[in-house]
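dude i think i finally got it to work??
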Amino acid sequence: MRCFLGIPIPADCREQIRNAWHISEEERPFLRLVDPGLWHVTMAFFGDIKYENLLKLSQLIGNALETPPEGAFEVTGIETFPTKRPVIYIAKCEPEQKIAWQDTVANIRDMASLIAPQIDRKPWQPHITLARARNKKALDPFEMSLENIGWVPEFATLYMSELTPAGPKYTPLHEYRLNN
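look at this
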């Protein structure tokens, strides 16, 4: 089963992002919008995990998050990504303790790599995926600054991710307390 660790976005923050971001009517047919209820900041994507390894993965994550970084995440802007031939819209996020969060994510990935050989090792860039281009159609470059949108994360969640014809389905498997 495909699994990832994410920080959910609270309802008030999701609403502020939705109110700030407007999609043109010309572009709307070419986008597959992500349900705002699914918005999250991915900390680690583990890939396919064997069922018998889920408990061990959960324990490893718990150990890595025993003393998590504190502080808020700020949503600083919305942009298309990647820079060359963009195919997704993201809301960029900046944690107050950026280095501590990067170290924590690296620690989670290192610990989990023993049972998650498909783990994503790309540099961690905290963001919320808002929409994807249909059929990998290149999007026009877009960048917009945001202010006064942020939250203090209360927990991270280990999710099972299923790709369905109606879009992704995320099933929470375990929560880890943050910002005690």
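The domain at 2-177 is CATH 3.90.1140.10 (Cyclic Phosphodiesterase; Chain: A,).
im so relieved honestly
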